[in-house]
Write a structure and sequence with these properties.
The chain has 280 residues and is of the alpha/beta class. It has two domains: 1-76 and 245-280, Rossmann fold (3-Layer(aba) Sandwich); 78-236, HUPs (Rossmann fold), CATH 3.40.50. Helix content is 35%, strand content 15%. The protein has ten helices and twelve strands. The protein has a three-stranded parallel beta sheet. A three-stranded antiparallel beta sheet has the order 4-7-10. Helix 7 (195-205) packs across helix 8. The longest helix has 16 residues, at 17-32. It is globular. Bound molecules: glutamic acid and zinc ion. Zinc ion (ZN) binds at residues 98-100, 128-129.
């Protein structure tokens, strides 16, 4: 099986050193193995994505010396696939509508005997809307849909192969999924789908064999393996890499324009300087 990696940025800001590291790693890994490096634009969140950031991504990656096949997969072209997967999960009774605001969830969690367990998506949902609405009939529109993790985690254990720096455990029990991850949102009120749903569908559609990404997404992989099982998709090998930090040890954020690739380029640095700066 030939090796296929990807870089999947969201066009919501400039690429910085952390993105460059991730893209270069994925690219180098694919090329070292005689495989292919693919690009995917994660623009599912239409409230935050901007065409000018997408254009800047192509420019920055090209300048870094990366190449990728075109046309590039864009999540905004994949809504039919996301809808079909949601419909399949809805038909199996694995989703339920949720009308809670962040405030409602915070209030429910501050009630006595409800400790706030923090999962990959923030506080574990207290289950307020579970059982409130019928799960039959047409899939509801314009409302958030949550995955009923208690039913979705149908195997005693889930695991994946990790080749990156992250040393935490790569397997998770159904009990821990219910208690520590909980009923995550799979389709948002303001747009169809969610990061977790689209990432597993897109990685499978692109035939990705090795997912290279930052270790900040390590915990989210516990969600992805459950979704892959439910949707009949293969689980790729994962490589979660260390995060690039600033001099103070803080991880770089999208708003860190000072470390944007475009800024370094404007200052006259070259791609080799960027490689050296991230330790490649
Ligand atoms: N689009 C995500 C981001 O920009 C990356 C998703 C992934 O690599 O799984 O952080
Ligand atoms: Zn709710």
């Amino acid at each position: 099986m030939s090796l296929i990696t990807r870089f999947a940025p969201s066009p919501t800001g400039p690429l910085h050193l952390g993105h460059a590291y991730s893209a270069l790693l994925a690219h180098d890994l694919a090329h070292a193995g005689g495989g292919q490096f693919l690009l995917r634009i994660e623009d599912i969140d239409t409230t935050r994505s901007r065409p000018e950031w997408e254009a800047q991504i192509y420019q920055d990656l090209g300048w870094l010396g990366l190449d990728w096949p075109r046309p590039v997969m864009r999540q905004s072209d994949r809504l039919d696939a996301y809808r079909a997967a949601l419909e399949a999960l809805w038909t199996e009774g694995l989703l339920y509508p949720c009308t809670c605001t962040r405030r409602d969830i915070a209030d429910a969690l501050s009630a006595p005997q409800e400790g706030a367990q923090i999962g990959p998506d923030g506080p574990v949902y207290p289950g307020t809307c579970k059982g409130r609405h019928p799960r039959t009939g047409a899939m509801p529109q314009g409302v958030a849909l949550r995955l009923d993790m208690g039913r979705a985690a149908r195997h005693p254990r889930y695991g994946f192969v990790e080749t990156g720096a992250a040393s935490a455990t790569t397997s998770v029990s159904a009990e821990d999924l219910t208690a520590q991850v909980g009923d995550i949102v799979l389709s948002r009120k303001d747009f169809l789908g969610s990061y977790h749903l689209s990432v597993v569908l897109d990685d499978a559609a692109q035939g990705i064999t090795h997912v290279v990404r930052g270790e900040d997404l390590f915990e989210a992989t516990r969600i992805h393996v459950v979704l892959q099982d439910l949707l009949g998709l293969p689980t790729p090998t994962y490589h979660h890499h260390r995060l690039i930090r600033d001099a103070a040890g803080k991880r770089l954020a999208k708003r860190d324009d000072a470390r944007a690739i475009a800024t370094y380029r404007a200052e006259g640095l070259g791609p080799q300087d960027i490689r050296a700066m991230v330790g490649l």
